[in-house]
Structures are given as structure tokens and as C-alpha cells.
Design goal:
The chain is built from eleven helices and eleven strands. Helices cover about 45% and strands about 25% of the residues. The longest helix is centred in the N-terminal third of the chain and has 28 residues. The strands form three sheets. Strands 3, 4, 5, 6, 9, 10 and 11 form a seven-stranded mixed β-sheet that branches. By secondary structure, it is of the alpha/beta class.
Length: about 300
Amino acid sequence: MQLQQLRYFATVADVRHFTRAAEALHVAQPSLSQQIRALERELGADLFHRARGNITLTDAGEALLPLARRILADTDTARREVQEVAHLRRGRVRLGAPPSLCASLVPDVLRAYHERYPGIELFVDEGGSRDLVRDLAAGELDLALIITPLGVGAPALTTTELLREDLVVVSSPSAPRPVRRARIRVGDLRGLPLVMFRRGYDLREMTIAACRAAGFEPSFTVEGGEMDAVLGFVRAGLGVAVVPGMVAARSGLRVTPFEGERMRRTVAVAHRKDAPPPRAARELWGVLLEHLGED
């Protein structure tokens, strides 16, 4: 049974005339009749009572007509739905990003994307790179912004470097400066009260590793927070924190850059190697690159 045959059948049933049905469908009348006959042979029953000038449905035709109309309507709906997605009028993008990027880069990118493709639903999974990599591998995300390198044992992902961002030290404007100089060294963090992120946070691991490489263990006044909490604790004067430059620029806190051995992090966009991201996600990737090119 072919959709074309069902369409021919429904049109004849509507106009009750083979010639007028053929004209409406822009096909030759013999071709239409042949397709109707082929459908009847497949179903094993006549669909029309054929009499000169009087075409009526048989019982079999009456039974088939509502089903044929429903199938044709569903087919048209499916075609429209696919075209909507193909032309980015509908769809969904699932993006993962660390909290630091959700607080800086991601909002501006999503705003630009939403203005361009208002029909696309946006789902954001905020988490550490390890969690996002796991969600990517499980097929729960289309794209993720992660901090690289991934480390040993990472699943098969394709990563593309987006930017390298300086890390800086933020402190409360009402508190004494962490150092008298314009720039700070990693070694200057020895003995300073640090506000530290929760375990599993990329920035926590980077800060602790840098301190240990400088020969000391950092001391924490508060630990365990997410980005907003850490900035709030710093604002309250509980200590200093090492955060990305883009976050610091929006925080309203005092910013002290690192000297010499600047601390930096590499941000990449990742997706599964065996599953290219859908078009809506690829367009989001493009908007992201456009935004970074403007900065």
C-alpha cells in the first residue's frame, strides 16, 4: 500500500468522479484508475461501485476512507515537523557547561542564538567537566563546554579548543589588597585565606595543583561552594578566590592578575565521536564562535 494510492483513493472519494479527481491531482486519468485497481487488488476488495456518472463507496471503501485520511494527515504532519526541524524553526539543543561559563560566556551566546532561532528549545546542564563528559558519553547532551585536557580514561570525544582564559585572584574591595603589587604570584597565595570551590570543580583542582607545584598546601577559610556562593563569600570579606577572568570582570570584586607564570585554563567544545551533533547544535556552535570572534 502506497501513500500515493491512498491519496488517489481519498480524492476520488471526495469528488465521486475519476476524471475530475485526476484533474485535481494533475495526473492522467488512466494512471489514477490503475493505481486504484492496484490498491483494490492488494486489499482484496473493491473500494468503489463504478457506474457511469455515479461513483459510490463500497462497504470496504467506507471502512478505508477515515483510515486513509488519518494516515495522509499524519504524513503531512510528519513532513511539516521534519521541515520545521530542518529549517531550525523547531527542535532542541542540550548544552553542558561549567558554572563559571554559565555565569559569563553562556548567557550572551544563548541570547544571540535564541534571537536567531526562537523556536529551538534550549536545555543547559551545569556541572563540572567530568560530569559533562560522562553525560556526553551517555548521549544526554549534544555539546558541552569543558576544561581540557580531559585526562586518562576519558571517553571517545571530539574536542575543539575555543579559548584560553587567564585566571585571576578576586578579593573584596573593602578588604586589604592581597598583595601590594599590581600582580600576584602563585607563591603569594601561601597563607592567604582562600575561598574554595566544592570537590570535583575544575577550578579547585587547578588552584590546588598550582599551589602544590609552588611547594605549599593552600589554606581554606570556606570551601564547598558553587561559583555564585564563592563570589558571595569573597564579597563578604571571608577570603580571596581564584576565578576565570570573564567571571571576575562581571563580579564587581577587586581583580588582581597573576604575574609571570600566569594561570590559564583551556576551554573546548566537545561532542561524541560516533554521533555528530544535530544541525541545531551545530548552529549553536557557530553562534559561539561568532561571539568569541567579536570579543
